Every structure is written in C-alpha cells, then in structure tokens.
C-alpha cells in the first residue's frame, strides 16, 4: 500500500494558505473526478486502485474503500523499460495496453 498526500490549493480562497499545496494536485484530483464520473471534488479523498473513491474520515470507512478497491486489483506481470537521459526518464512497455505512469520521489528516512 502506498499512501500519498497531495495538498490542494482550492482551500486557499478561504483565507488558509497551505504552503504545500500545488495547482498540479488540484488538476490531478479533477482528472480522477472525470475518470470516476464525479461532478465535484472533496477532501479528504481516498482513491483505491484508481477505481473507487470516498471520504477518508475514519478507519471503518477506509477499510470498506480498500475492500471495494481490491476487487478491481488485477495483478499482472508487466515488462517496463526505462532510460535515463539528461534530466528526464523515458518509460516504455511491451504490448498494446496503455496506462498512466506516476513518478513519485520520496525520502525513506523518518524525520520529525
């Protein structure tokens, strides 16, 4: 399980400026809303396996979302090729399927 926190900017208009917020995260959330046929976005939002979403207020609700999302899990073996060049990475795969590649940088050193 990989948990990401993406701070959105649309709360800034209410006078609370989130220094971690980025408009790219707003866009990402709207892209999920479109894919999931939602007419609005909300926080806190949980998305499981790109197929199920809901409000993540408590552990019981989260467990329900995870269970529903796991029903969409289709474990597959994929061959992904990548090449690092200059300041970029080229990612490719075999076959005719398409997908979304998200590159996530993280620091595995706990900090306080």
UniProtKB/TrEMBL annotation:
Q: Which organism is it from?
A: Letharia columbiana
Protein name, UniProt field: Uncharacterized protein
Which Pfam family, just one, is annotated for this protein? DUF1223
User: Which InterPro entries does UniProt cross-reference here?
Assistant: DUF1223, Thioredoxin-like_sf
């Amino acid at each position: 399980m990989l948990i990401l926190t993406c701070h959105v900017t649309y709360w800034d208009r209410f006078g609370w400026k989130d220094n971690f917020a980025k408009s790219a995260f707003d866009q990402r959330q709207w892209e999920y809303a479109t894919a999931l046929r939602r007419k609005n976005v909300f926080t806190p939002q949980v998305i499981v396996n790109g197929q199920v979403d809901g409000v993540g207020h408590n552990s019981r609700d989260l467990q329900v979302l995870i269970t529903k999302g796991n029903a969409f899990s289709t474990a597959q073996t994929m061959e992904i090729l990548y090449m690092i060049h200059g300041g970029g990475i080229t990612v490719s795969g075999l076959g005719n399927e398409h997908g979304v590649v998200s590159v996530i940088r993280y620091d595995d050193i706990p900090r306080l």
